[in-house]
Known about the structure:
The chain is flat and about 80 Å long. The mean pLDDT is about 90. The chain is an all-alpha fold. The protein has 2 domains: about 1-45; about 50-93. It is about 80% helix and about 0% strand.
Amino acid sequence: MSRYEFWLEVFRLRGSAAPLIIGRVIGFTLFSQIVTLLMSYLEVTHLLANSHYEYIGAVLALLLVLRTNAGYDRWYEARKVWGGIVNQSRNLG
């Protein structure tokens, strides 16, 4: 693949999820810009302490670890079953 073809493939929208989400991305971007401008114009400070964000981050990290471990366990179990199938097929031959 040439360099030109690579960039054509990168920016190709057909078959991509980009057209499905671009409206939401633009909407959330505009919303965040409005909130940021209002906060700076009204000189509003943060109402929550930083510790709340740390607690939420710890909970999300724990959930991510548990999901990863569960996925790895499913993969390992499937690997064992597939190995058993291969061994049984070898025994038949």
